[in-house]
Amino acid sequence: MLFRDAFKTSTRSLTQSKMRSALTMLGIVIGISSVIILMSIGQSAQDLILNQVQSVGSNLVIVIPGAPSNGKFSPPASEQGIIITTLKQRDIDSLEREPSIDAAAAVVNGQAEVVYGNNNKTITYQGVSASMFPVRKLTIGVGSAFTKADVDSANHVVVIGPELAKTLFGSALNPINKTIRLKNLSFRVVGILEKGGTGMFGVDQGNVVIVPITVAQKQLLGISHFSAVIVQANSQYDLNFVESRMKFVLRQNHGITDPNKDDFNIMTQADILSILGNITSILTIFLAAIASISLVVGGIGIMNIMLVSVTERTREIGLRKAVGATDGDILQQFLIESVLLTLLGGTAGIAFGAIIVGIAYLVISTFFSSLGWGFAFPLSAVLLGLGVSGVAGIVFGIYPARKAGKKNPVDALRYE
């Protein structure tokens, strides 16, 4: 039997039992649409995270106290709860004298309750150098950032996140020049960040309180070291060269002669993007693998229905073999039916998944526009859906097709 004839016969057989064919495909539709939706969500999340990191600037280099314990990308000691006090003001001064560095800004972090009137909220506060605002590209929506003079004089001024401003002052009251309390100290609000989102070190920029680093160190935390230093590299220099110069300066300041005994960890934007990209890719694969379980269930359902179909069409199989059809012809026909079912189900699943993803994007962009969530429908998800559908049709269709092909024509014709 020619493939064309087998295809026509298989198509006719499927259309004669439309309801059964539709129900058989349902498992594949659900499985493929689940994979499409989860892969799209994973890709959208990855794009969102990477875009947020890139928006900070491509020429930033971060210095964190404490060398990694196992390899470049393992957490430094300071991120494991170990207090490292090696980064000091002398490091900032030395780095800023480097021709390959435009600016260096220090940061310390803490948590406390911020209060205005009867409103309060527990937040993460950051003590930063005045240069942190241009280095991190932190845009002020209302008011202004505090200055170097404020830092040098340890003035009690703050810049707060937009969501925190709404929580403390509501939407009607102008927060500028209002006084808030943080750890029993009074601060004057001089500016509000233009937008929130997740900033460096996972800090919620929408609910952050940013104070001069001198105030944070001496009056809020009682320390003299920094949690991290953010360096803005000169665009005329290669980042690898800047990193090597930073290592030289810090080793000289800290009296380190053995590079294997560094007490600091340097990370560039490329390092951060690589780590985040790997993490989000693994999560996407993991989610897709979970969704693929439903594909196995759908495939087993197709195999069961095909076995029932073989039993119901026993006399038809016997008649075909009696007039000259070979085992291979019968096997081909039933295998084509199985593959058609899964491919049609896969196509429907891709379409259904795309519709769900589109609706989700419209809802998020309409009601949660501040998230910056973008629409992502990766081509790899479509190819994976079609590929898995075809493979499932072959794998789960072989057994019923072989069982049909091996039937004895005489016994098949006698079947009631």
**Uncertain ranges:** none
Task: Give me the side-by-side strand order of the main sheet.
Answer: 2-3-8-5-7-6
What's the domain count? 2
Helix content range: 55-70%
The whole-angstrom Rg is 32 Å
- Rounded mean pLDDT is 79
Which structural class matches the secondary elements?
alpha+beta
Number of strands: 10
Lay out the secondary structure.
Elements: H1 3-16, H2 18-56, E1 60-65, H3 89-96, E2 101-116, E3 119-128, H4 132-136, E4 140-143, H5 148-153, E5 157-160, H6 162-169, E6 179-182, E7 185-193, E8 209-212, H7 213-221, E9 228-233, H8 239-254, E10 264-268, H9 269-312, H10 314-322, H11 327-367, H12 379-405, H13 409-414
Parallel strand pairs: 3-8, 5-7
Antiparallel strand pairs: 1-9, 1-10, 2-3, 2-6, 2-9, 4-7, 5-8, 6-7
Helix pairs in contact: 1-11, 2-9, 2-11, 2-12, 3-8, 9-11, 9-12, 11-12
